[in-house]
Amino acid sequence: PIWLALYLKKRAKCRILPPAWLNAEVLLEILNQEKVESNLLQLDENFREISSILLKSATDDIPNSNKVSCLIEDIMTIRSSKIDEKVNQFGNEGNQVLNLTNITKHEVTKVKGGIILFLKKFYQLNSKNQLQTANNPEISQTQRSSQFYCCLLYTSPSPRDS
Length: 162
Hints:
This protein is mostly helical. The chain contains 6 helices and 2 strands, in the order ααααβααβ.
């Protein structure tokens, strides 16, 4: 576990080998792909957390750590923009499905508050609409059952073989 590696490193008992994706060449490739792809690329589920911890506590074990840090920030900025765009489309354009495939745990935490507020408003509007349609005998059962539906998809990246 990472906490044990950090504990041993502080006591000069070990050297930390960073994950394969935590190097400048791989991160540059990820950055270029994130710029081109409309969807989020699959990253390690704890990408942000691991990189942050290792760049803070084991900088000497990461080659080109300054460049790696900048690349990670650039990747996170692009991903954040993509997520914001998808959330805004979900809320403003009437999309009923928010698909955030390959979102990391850090990103889920970051957008969770905004999505929850939106869903609360959505369900308040839905409740008012259902109340209005329930009191209106001219609206058919089919129309009542097809009012507003909302679906939020979150799929966690599958664990990679190391």
